Amino acid sequence: MQRGPIHLSHLLLWLLIAQTSSDLPMCKESDYHFEYTECDVLGSRWRVAIPNKADTCTGLPDPVKGTQCTFSCNEGEYLDMQSQQCKKCAAGTYSLGTGVLFDEWDSLPPGFVTHGMNTNGGDSHTNCSNSTWTPKGDFIASNTDECSATLSYAVSLKKPGKVTFEYFYPDSSIYFEFYVQNDQCQSTDSESRWMSISESDWSSYTVGLSKGNNVLYWRTTTYALQDSAVKPVLLRNISISGVAFTSECFHCKPGTHSAKPGSARCSPCPVDSYSHKGATVCYQCTNDTYSEAGTGSCKPRPACTNSDYFYTHTPCDSEGKTQLMYKWIEPKICSETAEGAVQLPASGEKKTCPPCNPGFFVGNSSTCKPCPSGLYSNGTVCTECPVGMEPVVGFEYKWWNTMPHNMKSSIYSSGFSEHSTAWEVAGEYVYTTPGDNDRDYMTLTLHVPGYRLPQSDAQDGEMSELSRITFVFETICTADCKFSFMGGNNEWRNDLVEQWRGSNRKQSYSYLIHRNTTNSFIWTFQRTEEYDTGRKYSADVAKIYLIHITNVIGGVASQCRRCALRYQTAGSTCVPCSPGHYMVTKTGRCRPCPPNSFVKANQALGGATCVQCGPNTWTNKAYTACLSDCVLDVHTKSGAHLHYDFSPLANVTGFHSSPRFTNRGLRYFHRFNLGLCGNEGKLLAMCVDNVTESGRQIRGYICQSTVFPSDIRSKSVVSSLPFLIGDSLIGVTTDTSLGGISSPQWLFPSASTLPDVIFYYKSSETTQTCKHGRSATVRLRCNPTVTSKDLITLPSNCSEGTCDGCTFHFLWESQHACPLCTINHYREIVSACIQGIQKTTYVWQQPLQCYGGESLPAQKVSACVSLDFWLKFGVSTGTIAAVLLISISCYFWKKTRKLQYKYSKLMMTSGGKECELPTADSCAIMEGEDAEDDIMYLNKKSFFNKIKSFSRERTSDGFDSVPLKSSSLRHIEEDDSDDS
C-alpha cells in the first residue's frame, strides 16, 4: 500500500541520530526505507532514509531533493525511491499508479471507519452499535436490521481523480446511497446519489473526486414492513485514483494472476483452475477436482445426483419435430465416475411440435415467426382483421419450446457463481432448474418496450386499463420456498407486487399496469432462506404455464376487437364510433348511450357497453368517466332542500394514520392523498415512492403510501409501497350504500339530524386479496366549528382506514361540508319603540347547521310612534270631538228656537181668523229678516251675536234702527200717509 510523506521533524531527528550513533554498524539497504517529507509552499519536498528499527545501524544516506509534489506514475508502474524513477511492476504484481485498490476484505482495511445509528430518533430503543458493515473476504456487506450503517474512507488527492467500486444491491427494502464530502463537510453530491437496484449481477459505479481532502460515504438504511430476511448491500473492488504516488506494487491475491510486467490489475483464473498469491499463471485442476472462477484452490468433485441435471425441450427442427433432452448443469462440478454417481438420462423420442404461440405462425424452417402488423393468428395462420375491427396486440406465451426473445433467466447466488440457466423450457411450461445452493434466487425477467391502447380500450387520463399481465403458475415445495412477482418501472427498479410461500396449486394471477414506464416483470423463486443447505431441496420447483400481457408495443395479435370508443387515429384501420356511442356487437353499427352515461369496454361481450353515472355525477366530454363539480342538492325526508358547495375541499388533501410499529420497533405511517371532486382537467391525488431514484408515481382520487421517518440526508421521510384505493367516482349521495359499496353509520356515529354526504370511489386495480379491486367512501360531515380543511379521521375500530384491506372509510368534518345558508337558517328579532326608533336584528337558528351562502342581514332601524303619543293624541281627539258635538247641539237648538219663533209670529199676524194664515209678501226671505229675529231675542243673544249687534248703526236717540218689513207695518204706514 501507499506510504505517506513524513514531517520535517523527522529530518531533524535523523540528523540527531547520525551524530550520536557513530559506534553502530553501517546500514545496509534492508535496514532502512525512503520516505518523502511534507510538501512546502513551493511544492518541493526531500527524500530521507528512515531506519526500519531504531538504533540498529548508522550511516544512513543523506537527504536529497525529492521529486515535485505533482509527480506521479502511470498504471502498472511504481516509484522507485532509490532512483526516484517510475518502473514497471513485475509479473504477478499490479499497481494503479496514482491510485489505491481495496479488493481483499478479510478485515476492515486501514482508513475505513464503519458505525451504526438509529434512524428513528429517540422513539426507538433499538441498539444500533453493532449495525455496521462486515468484511466477508471478497466483499464487505451492509447491515440488514432497521438501523443506518455508514462506511467511510478519507483520502487526500494531489490532483483530481475518481472513485470506482462494484456493488450488489438486490433488495428494494434497503435504502442505499453514496456521497462525497470535502474537508469542510460540504457535500459534493452527484446528480444521483441514490444507487440503482442491481438487475442480475454486480454493478459498477464511478464518481469524480476533486483535488484535496475527500471523505467517501456508503450508507444503507433498511425499511421493511414484513418480518422477513432482507438481502444486504455488498461492496468490493474499491479503487481511488489521484493520490500522490505508489511506492510499491502489490501481489495478486489467490485465484488471480498477472502474466506480464506493468499490469494495472490481476485477472481471475478461469473455471477449474487455481493460483496462489503473486501468481503469474493459473494451474489446471485435476480431473477429480474442480474450482469456480477466481478461487485459489480446487475441491473434490462430488458424485453426480439427480440435482445435477435438468430436462428441456429442443427447438423445432426443419421437420417440425422436438424431443425431451437432459443436460448437465453448467459449469459441471460432479463426477459421473465416482461411486454411486447417476448417469445422464437418455433423450426422449422426437414428437411433433405443438402449435406456435398465439400471434405467431410456422415459417419455412418450422420456426415460429410473428404475424405482420394488422394480422392476427391462433398460432397457425395469420389472418386480416375484418373492417371495423383492430388487432389486440400483446404477448401470449403458452407453449415453451424455446425461451422467448424478450425473456431471460439468471441466478442471484449467495456465492455469485454464474450459472448457465435458472429457468428452462419444458414444452407446456417453463420451470426452475436446480441451482448451486438452495438459497439462490432463480430469476425470470420479461422486458416490454411500452404500451398502446387499442381503439376499443383507449381512454383519456390515468384511469384506463393501460395493460394487464396474467400468468398461471404452480409451486411444489418441501421447504419454506418463496415465489415472488415484481414489476419494474425501469431496468433498475423492481417493486414487489405479490408473493407466495410454500406449495401452491395451479392458479392464475392478474396485475393491472397503469403507467407506461413499467417495462420489466420479474419472477423469482427461492427454495429456502436457510444457510449451508447445498442442494438439499433441489427437487422443489416453480412452474409457469402461461404468461399473457396486453396492449404491448411491438406485440402480436391473437384476436380482433371492434373499435367503439374513440375517433379514428392516424394509422388505424378502424372506423370507430363517435364519443358517447358504442358499436353493437356483430353488427358494426354505432348506437348512442343513454344520457349521463359513459362507454366502457366489455371484454366478455367483445365490444363495449354503456355505464350509467351514479347519483349527482355526470359524464365527461370524452364519455369515458363520471365527474362531480363539487356542487350538490339534497332533499331530506322532512322536505327541506339543502344546497352544498364542496369546492373549498376540492384540492388534493393529504393525511396519515396513527403511528404503527413493525415487529422490530420501526415506526411508520400510512399516508393517504385524497382528491375529492372537481371538473375536467383537475389534478388527481398522487402517491410517490422516493426510496430510490425511480420515483414511481400513481394517480387517482385516493391513494396510499407507507411513510417512514428518516434521518437520511436531504429527506425527512421516505415513502414507499404506493397503491390506488379509488380511481373512479361511483356517485355522491346521502345513502349508506351504493354500487355494492357500504358505509355503515356505526363506523362514524353522529348525533346530528343533518345527513352526511358520502362520496363513493372504486379502483380497478386487483390483488390476490381484493379480487374485485379496492373501494373507498368519504363521509362529509357538517361541523361549523372546524375551520381547518383537512380534519379527516379514520374509523376507531379500523385504525388503518380499512377493516378488510379492500374497502376504506374516511370521515371528513369541516364547515365547508355544511349546506349553504338560506333565509330559512336565520330569524328576526324586533325591539320595542324607544324614543321614536325601532330596531330589527337577525340571528342564526341554533344549532347552526350551515355555512356560507346567504349572509346574515344587517340590523335595520326604522321610525315609530310610541304609546304615550297615541294616548295624548286620543285624549286630544276626544276633547275636540266633545267640543264639536256640543257646538253642533247648540247650533241645532238655536235653529229650532228660531223656527218656533217664526211659527208663533205667523200665528199672531193671521188677523184672528181661524184657519187663515197671512199671505206672504214675498216668496223669498227678505234682507233683514235675521236681524228682526235677533231683536226679538235680544235679551238672549249669544256672545257672538252680541258683538254683531254692537256693530250695527244706532239712531240719534240711542236706539237701534230696525226696519220692519212686515205687511202689517206697511198698512200702518199707508194709513199715516192717508191722514196727512
What's the N-to-C terminus distance?
Answer: 190 Å
Which regions are unreliable across 5 or more consecutive residues at pLDDT < 50? 1-6, 458-463, 921-928, 931-940, 950-974
Q: What level of helicity do the residues show?
A: under 10%
How many strand segments?
67
For this structure, the quaternary state is single chain
Q: Number of DSSP helices?
A: 5
- Quote the beta fraction: 35-45%
What number is the mean pLDDT? Answer: 80
Radius of gyration: 55 Å
Structural class: mainly beta
Morphology: elongated
Major sheet: size, sense and barrel closure? 7 strands, antiparallel
Task: List the keywords.
980 residues; mainly beta; six-stranded antiparallel beta sheet; 9% helix
Secondary structure layout plus pairing:
Layout: H1 8-20, E1 32-36, E2 46-51, E3 64-65, E4 77-80, E5 85-88, E6 93-94, E7 99-102, E8 112-118, E9 134-135, E10 140-141, E11 147-157, E12 161-168, E13 174-182, E14 203-209, E15 212-222, E16 234-241, E17 250-251, E18 256-257, E19 267-268, E20 273-274, E21 283-284, E22 289-290, E23 299-300, E24 309-313, E25 321-328, E26 350-352, E27 360-362, E28 368-370, E29 375-376, E30 383-384, E31 389-397, E32 407-412, E33 423-425, E34 430-432, E35 441-447, E36 467-476, E37 482-490, E38 493-501, E39 504-513, E40 520-526, E41 541-550, E42 556-562, E43 581-583, E44 590-592, E45 597-602, E46 607-612, E47 618-619, E48 626-627, E49 631-635, E50 641-645, E51 653-656, E52 660-661, E53 667-674, E54 685-689, E55 696-700, E56 702-709, E57 717-726, E58 728-733, E59 737-738, E60 741-742, E61 757-762, E62 775-782, E63 791-793, E64 807-814, E65 826-830, E66 837-844, E67 860-863, H2 867-908, H3 929-936, H4 943-950, H5 967-979
Parallel strand pairs: 62-64
Antiparallel strand pairs: 1-2, 2-3, 4-5, 6-17, 7-16, 8-11, 9-10, 10-16, 11-15, 12-14, 12-16, 13-15, 18-19, 20-21, 22-23, 24-25, 25-26, 27-28, 29-30, 31-41, 31-42, 32-35, 33-34, 34-41, 35-40, 36-39, 36-41, 37-38, 37-40, 43-44, 45-46, 47-48, 49-50, 51-53, 52-53, 53-56, 54-55, 56-57, 58-61, 59-60, ...
